[in-house]
Write a structure and sequence with these properties.
By secondary structure, the chain is α+β, with helices and mostly antiparallel strands. The protein has helices at 32-37, 58-69, and strands at 3-8, 14-19, 23-29, 39-46, 49-57. The radius of gyration is 12 Å and the shape is globular.
Length: 74
């Protein structure tokens, strides 16, 4: 179980594939407007930089965060 694919971009869509083993840390961000709309921003920090996914539903963001950061044997 190792990769997740996401799409980034408002006008131009770009596919992003993140390997679970490359994720060093992650965080979920959300300002007052995002929280009111039930959205968040998920940021994954990898060895090659950071990948930011904006406009993710909060429940999905938490699930994605958990799937990408929990240990493979846990």
């Amino acid at each position: 179980g190792g990769c997740r694919r996401g799409e980034k971009g408002l006008l131009v869509r770009r596919a992003v594939v993140i390997s679970r083993s490359d994720v060093r840390a992650s965080e979920i961000r959300g300002g007052p407007i995002q929280r009111r709309l039930g959205l968040c921003t998920v940021v994954f920090f990898t060895g090659g930089g950071k990948v930011t996914l904006r406009g993710v539903e909060t429940g999905d963001g938490r699930l994605l965060n958990r799937l990408m950061t929990e240990s493979a044997d846990g």
